Amino acid sequence: MAEASPNGDDGLDRIELYLGASHGYAARFGERIARMAHALAEEAPVLKVRLHLPEPYHDAKPAPPAPNVDHTVPDERRLIAVLELAFHSPLVRRTFHASDAFKAATAGLAEHVAYASAFAVSGIYTYVRDGQLTLAGLRGSRPAQLIERIGAVNQAGADVRHLIRTGKPSAG
Asked: What is the spatial distance between Cα 1 and Cα 139, in angstroms, rounded to a whole number?
């Protein structure tokens, strides 16, 4: 059964791919990246494809606002796409990247993509689930893994959650 709130390594080979647009046309860029994501999702070696097309960044609305911090984003980083891909193993991923299917899915991409940066994902962590902090959200991912691994129920109860949230022991 799949874990609803994963916290750690799931054994899959995952990468996040950040793609920067080569032009300022958000709709054209998004459509091309979505076509590629759909083509990748159709292939058996690709276990997961998640596409995120954030709104183009605007310097007029810095996020997060902070005094004396320059939030100016260069033009080449204003329009991006983030693609999460999962494979059974690095061997499967590398074999797929050399395949005709991958070449077909990415053909002509240079017209819309100026750069690509790939990052290995070492674990999947859920900090909030259904509007509530998970154990990882409350304690941090590494302590939560340890608490789960050794079965430290005395570190996961309502009294501990109350103490961490308020700084005061439960009245009970």
From this structure: 24
Q: Are 116 and 18 in contact (CB under 8 A)?
A: yes
The answer, as to whether pTM is greater than 0.70, is: yes
pLDDT digits (tens, 9 = 90+) for 61-88: 666 777 787 777 777 777 899 999 999 9
Please report, as a single letter, which amino acid is at residue 164.
Answer: I
Number of domains in the chain: 2
Tokens of 114: 């100026």
The answer to whether residues 117 and 143 belong to one domain is no
Residue 172 placed within a domain = no
Domain stop point among 94, 109, 124:
124
Provide DSSP, 41-52. HTSTT--EEEEE
Range of the domain at 111: 7-124
Integer Cα distance of 7 and 128 in angstroms: 11
